[in-house]
UniProtKB/TrEMBL annotation, chains A, B, C, D:
This is Chorismate synthase. It catalyses: 5-O-(1-carboxyvinyl)-3-phosphoshikimate = chorismate + phosphate. PANTHER family: CHORISMATE SYNTHASE. GO terms for molecular function: chorismate synthase activity. It comes from Herbaspirillum chlorophenolicum. FMN binds at residues 125-127, 238-239, 278, 293-297, 319. Its EC number is 4.2.3.5. Keywords: Amino-acid biosynthesis, Aromatic amino acid biosynthesis, FAD, Flavoprotein, FMN, Lyase, NADP. NADP(+) binds at residues 48, 54. The lineage of its organism: Bacteria, Pseudomonadati, Pseudomonadota, Betaproteobacteria, Burkholderiales. Pathway: Metabolic intermediate biosynthesis; chorismate biosynthesis; chorismate from D-erythrose 4-phosphate and phosphoenolpyruvate: step 7/7. Homotetramer.
Amino acid sequence: MSGNTFGTLFTVTTFGESHGPAIGCVVDGCPPGMALSEADIQPELDRRRPGTSRHVTQRQEPDTVEILSGVFEGKTTGTPITLLIRNQDQRSKDYGNILETFRPGHADYTYWHKYGIRDPRGGGRSSARLTAPAVGAAAIAKKWLFEKFGTTFKGCMSQLGEIEIPFESWEHVPNNAFFAANAGIIPKLEEYMDALRKDGDSIGARIDVVAQNVPVGLGEPLYDKLDAEIAYALMGINAVKGVEIGAGFRSVTQKGSEHGDALTPEGFVGNNAGGVLGGISTGQDITASIAIKPTSSIRTPRPSIDKSGNPIAVETFGRHDPCVGIRATPIAEAMLALVLMDHALRHRAQCGDVKVDTPQLR
Amino acid sequence: MSGNTFGTLFTVTTFGESHGPAIGCVVDGCPPGMALSEADIQPELDRRRPGTSRHVTQRQEPDTVEILSGVFEGKTTGTPITLLIRNQDQRSKDYGNILETFRPGHADYTYWHKYGIRDPRGGGRSSARLTAPAVGAAAIAKKWLFEKFGTTFKGCMSQLGEIEIPFESWEHVPNNAFFAANAGIIPKLEEYMDALRKDGDSIGARIDVVAQNVPVGLGEPLYDKLDAEIAYALMGINAVKGVEIGAGFRSVTQKGSEHGDALTPEGFVGNNAGGVLGGISTGQDITASIAIKPTSSIRTPRPSIDKSGNPIAVETFGRHDPCVGIRATPIAEAMLALVLMDHALRHRAQCGDVKVDTPQLR
Amino acid sequence: MSGNTFGTLFTVTTFGESHGPAIGCVVDGCPPGMALSEADIQPELDRRRPGTSRHVTQRQEPDTVEILSGVFEGKTTGTPITLLIRNQDQRSKDYGNILETFRPGHADYTYWHKYGIRDPRGGGRSSARLTAPAVGAAAIAKKWLFEKFGTTFKGCMSQLGEIEIPFESWEHVPNNAFFAANAGIIPKLEEYMDALRKDGDSIGARIDVVAQNVPVGLGEPLYDKLDAEIAYALMGINAVKGVEIGAGFRSVTQKGSEHGDALTPEGFVGNNAGGVLGGISTGQDITASIAIKPTSSIRTPRPSIDKSGNPIAVETFGRHDPCVGIRATPIAEAMLALVLMDHALRHRAQCGDVKVDTPQLR
Amino acid sequence: MSGNTFGTLFTVTTFGESHGPAIGCVVDGCPPGMALSEADIQPELDRRRPGTSRHVTQRQEPDTVEILSGVFEGKTTGTPITLLIRNQDQRSKDYGNILETFRPGHADYTYWHKYGIRDPRGGGRSSARLTAPAVGAAAIAKKWLFEKFGTTFKGCMSQLGEIEIPFESWEHVPNNAFFAANAGIIPKLEEYMDALRKDGDSIGARIDVVAQNVPVGLGEPLYDKLDAEIAYALMGINAVKGVEIGAGFRSVTQKGSEHGDALTPEGFVGNNAGGVLGGISTGQDITASIAIKPTSSIRTPRPSIDKSGNPIAVETFGRHDPCVGIRATPIAEAMLALVLMDHALRHRAQCGDVKVDTPQLR
């Protein structure tokens, strides 16, 4: 209820602060009997971890995961699975002056007013580092969904600031620091980021994610619609300011005769729906896009106030991502996977294995 | 858990179908001692109800609300408040052939596959008519928030298809059928809608909503961030395909030095944040925009399949909104109000009345 | 969260007050496709309703149930099922002086201090009349559990004040006003109650309930143990002060060699467990007993205070059950059924259809 | 939802197995700004830990707690507090043969059928060792309740098998291995336990707990009644088979004129209510009793079956408590504290600080 648990049947309760002793999560509700070890989880954490290129924060964290519970002789037992990641590279002194001032665009101000106390070390709990436990938990969800339905998840950066990144092929994504599905554009992106870093500024980005081989019928009809829950999950990622499903804001200018995806015996024609109709999955690909704002912790001085209300110019040193969007792709995939996992369990709770005579389309 | 309850501490459990005997909701968690009668709720329902102009569905529903419980001698008692709205103008025969086919872009197909059964009368539970109980419940939330904090809610249509509607003044909104904050553009909008109706087609729209005088500190830090919950609430409205908070997708091309709203002793400068930082309200206006897709029930024939999987052309008769966006403004306000109400209670549960020495900015 | 919703996956949200216009509930999470009509629910309500013998309150309420939603052409659709019961025989004037004083042993005092306001008409929401909606909801649960697993529910009064009622046969239960499983003892019970009524006093009782043909594996291991949830459900019935599962308080004096029910290829020997081990159903009968306190609303004058804190003698007129235990049997069965239904859905959410090679015992 | 989280606003999510690497919990919802360190928690864990007398299991576990998150510079920050306890004295080989057979009265059988897999090392998650994290979490709750309301918790064993333990004084409790509030009876209890151990058998017990200085108004009126939640919390403790509030099963033979606690300007007379009326705290002491069954893991051979369904005699070696009731007192106090903490937050969420003009009684 205090906002540290994600999900209703497949729940992820995370804990920890950026520069505390450890971060981690308790995953509850995982079906029993699935093979699971750290080797299933570590690769997803590695995709997200910092320090892997010059374009992201230089904090060095191996993000090594330890499974503390819930697995016996290599299989899930149906009891809570705890993932623990010890923090290794804390440099809390970097943040010394932050305690007395508020960074424009940062959670400093709101945490202070909400709680009357805040952990300033690396942003404490408001740090994007806290997405790591969810990425670990999502590795479990992805494995179950793949084994059960063949569901897979993909994502890529589709825009960096003004630079649109045309989609070429998913196979480019693991081969560059930007999760771009385009090989030729990489030098341009690197040049842009190098200049930005020199200026001490930051930039926004757009990320696209897709889930494929999703069964029809996931999602609840009124308030826990699948698209509503995806919007919740994605908007909850640090720095996200916008979420689209399927055609998204393009729907504003579409006519009904254009927007509604035709059904044919061979499948759906088009996917303006983004795989969701009436809040329930159609069996098409689930597609979503998110807008990520530029990092608020920048070296460029900005007008702000201190805790006594006096005007002050704030510059942020320490180690920060100049574009948090660069590492956001695996996080967005993870959140999408957690939503689908949760709804897969919710669906079978109420509906069991529904049989209908209509062919299921993709 | 089956998706018919909204909120965690201020909960709204809705029920009913478009052409069943009644729709309504149970509102639980309302603080005791607030004056409340049907007269506080009916005006909000009247703003949303059908049949008020030629540009919306011609179904005639007075949407008269009856309070069945939770109020004693004109005051809330802290027990559940039940709102009942009897359906008056059912014409189920209009939907006769829908049971055997699926409308492209409609929940017909997904309900059928999820449940193995569906109520085809007016879309059953998937009808936008089911937003009425939430609008009623939100009237209670709005009243409490206003009495406690002075919080107010406003909304307007900012785009109809290709037609952008420049903001002039909130005072225009109640004076036209479109909830447009612009008087001069109304003839153009009417002309557009008249042509569209003649064509038997439908169109998308964009709606903006604002909450003013919101206290600082509402929202939970990791997963029930205020913006995440707003995204959930707004994306859950029928036909919504995109949600933005503050700068939204404009953040993609912004630099950090531009996006972060400066703090000064006199207040925030700008509102790219949309009133939320780190998932917690800043005290600025909460601003959000939504994209609404065109109605899927249109007279224009569309390719689809029947329940045996055979190809068929579907035309939808009956009474439908050619632009569901036209009646969406009060609904979007309502969902925003429900989110803020819930988080106001959640905040005082954990934090009570926090006192900090920093001035609170707007 | 405000305590008016029962269950997590099969949820019952009740509303209404004893002398308001109506009481009822919204049942969410019912699996789709089950045949359901008022005729399935009314008989359970009839077993609980007042005015059926001279030993219970003389309030005349037919408790006629109306299904407002969730059923289409005689089948559940998977959407919320709303049950509405209009109150018919309010006599609020009977309770006029109660608003200024507090009955010893009654919720008057605590509601007043909790909410600062209370509905005094017939106890408002604290009335045992509010068990009716749960009994209605449980009729739905019982039907589903019976169709799915053959599960049945039985209950009887096993003690009235000092009078123990030896169990003879379930078939006696529907044939007397006390739900006694014993025919010969009825005259003694009637004589006792007649004398008590003359004295203007009330008396406690003990009720036993059993669920038969319960599948193995229902219940969660740590905090939502099946027995913990049964205890919660039964202790939550008005006037209940004690709950036992299986051997209950007899376990205190048992040795391990006596208490643990032996397993044999033919089944369990004995049922000290009451059908639950480690919080999970064994497949044996689920057995529970409850202690019901005497009604607090009695004609005998009792020392109390008024709202100014002055001493006063309170006598309660109006219509009351001199032994609330008499009508408690169908309520206890209902709450047990709601727990099992909820856990049946929870079990299949996480575990699906588990297959083990060990024989399942009863 | 899978039963490893306790509470709704002050939530405790536990994890771990008896012989896994660690056990622990995540405590979410703790109000910010309270001084907290391991020194506040360790003493409660020490009261519960094994190996402290010859009458309990000889497993040697220091149960040293580490706070992993949620505290900054000695104060709670409002973010999740994680408690980690590393297991030290695992001897899993002791349990080798258990995997193939089922102990009568043990969760072996039900876990196997529920999940199709179970961790047999020390009972895995069904071990009473898993009460330790809740005891740690409750130390936080106790501290907050004491600082806020002066609330304190006490408990004692009131019966061991046939031996009733007359209450003399709370001050005896910390001075004996049984948590008995009676000094003279200790030799008799020790003699009884020594004989029992020699016989390889186990025995039940009764425990009483009390909360003092509880504010009036805690508890929700219909389904989350304070007494219902206490029953849930206490019945959920391993081996508990019965729960009483106040007069408990004595209520069965009481008349209304005897049971209802009179109110006088000086306070309540008597406490048959056990501090709860209509599900809401009265301000009186909260009193509850529990029945604890004898341990199922005994050396005495018992008839059972193996996983192929063949009859077999089961004897359990390894280290076990011959009377789990002996260490149950701090656990029962802890669960009571968690319930009150949760309801203290729930109360202020909905009702804030209610002011009524009637004097508050004790």
